[in-house]
Amino acid sequence: MSWAGPEDIYLSTSLASYLDKKLLILLRDGRKLMGTLRSFDQFANAVLEGACERVVVGDLYCDIPLGLYVIRGENVVLIGELDMEREELPPHMTRVPTEEILRAQKAERDASDLKGTMRKRMEFLDMD
Amino acid sequence: MLFFSYFKDLVGREVTVELKNDLAIRGTLHSVDQYLNIKLENTRVVDQDKYPHMLSVRNCFIRGSVVRYVQLPPEGVDVELLHDATRREARGG
């Protein structure tokens, strides 16, 4: 099925129809990678050229360039074809420099960590 | 191979695929393979505001291993047919 001939790649689940297209790959750890699909196999292992990670924190976002990436298939959640005709993100979102997004990301992570520890400590109260 | 055949019959229908990371995507079932990998067309994310990065994705491939549920149209289930197919499969035919 994954090795369908060239005449039916558009009818099968084969990733061949995504080759050389700009894609968004969602990974199991929540990361979002963007890049051009250059190769793949039946496990959804994939080679992304010109890969970058899109970090989104609230209304801020940033694309961090990574280079050539080989992604092991088991980490892939979803591979989406990016429609270049459409807006990539809602208009209220702003692009910020790498340092700023990393700072925002860290702040968000610290906040959720804190919430986690608070909840753990309060667990004996059996709140909902 | 029962579920593979079953999903093949659903090609062209509108389904909602809920993933293990709670992301739910609605779209037209384009194709399915033996791993139950799924390709969807004309996708939209159910909770769009929470996943703004998915806005520009129209077609997507979903790896079978990350799927939690597939919500089907009610008319997509022929119980009698499914029963027969299940018995046939259980007999090893």
From TrEMBL, chain A:
Signal peptide start and end residues: none
Location of this chain's protein in the cell: Cytoplasm; Cytoplasm, P-body
Keyword Ribonucleoprotein found: yes
Alphabetical keyword list: Cytoplasm, mRNA processing, Ribonucleoprotein, RNA-binding
Any GO BP annotation: hyperosmotic salinity response
The keyword Cytoplasm is assigned to this record: yes
Domain of life (superkingdom): Eukaryota
Residue span(s) of domain Sm: 10-85
SUPFAM superfamilies to which the protein is assigned, alphabetical: Sm-like ribonucleoproteins (SSF50182)
GO cellular component terms given for this protein: Lsm1-7-Pat1 complex; P-body; ribonucleoprotein complex
Molecular function in Gene Ontology: mRNA binding
Regions annotated as coiled coil: none
Main location class: cytoplasm
Family: Belongs to the snRNP Sm proteins family.
Function statement: Component of the cytoplasmic LSM1-LSM7 complex which is involved in mRNA degradation by promoting decapping and leading to accurate 5'-3' mRNA decay. LSM1A and LSM1B are essential for the formation of the cytoplasmic LSM1-LSM7 complex which regulates developmental gene expression by the decapping of specific development-related transcripts. Required for P-body formation during heat stress.
Assembly and interaction partners: Component of the heptameric LSM1-LSM7 complex that forms a seven-membered ring structure with a donut shape.
Name of the protein described by the UniProt record: U6 snRNA-associated Sm-like protein LSm1
The encoding gene: LOC101501650
Automatic annotation (TrEMBL), chain B:
Sm domain residues: 2-76
SMART domains the UniProt entry points to: Sm
Subcellular location: Nucleus
Pfam families: LSM
PROSITE patterns found in the cross-reference section: SM (PS52002)
Keywords assigned by UniProt, alphabetized: mRNA processing, mRNA splicing, Nucleus, Ribonucleoprotein, RNA-binding, Spliceosome
A molecular function (GO) term: RNA binding
Chief location of this protein within or outside the cell: nucleus
Single GO biological process annotation from the record: mRNA splicing, via spliceosome
Keyword Nucleus: yes
Keyword RNA-binding listed: yes
GO cellular component: catalytic step 2 spliceosome; Lsm1-7-Pat1 complex; P-body; precatalytic spliceosome; U4/U6 x U5 tri-snRNP complex; U6 snRNP
Family to which this protein belongs: Belongs to the snRNP Sm proteins family.
Name this protein carries in UniProt: Sm-like protein LSM2
Species annotation: Macleaya cordata (Five-seeded plume-poppy)
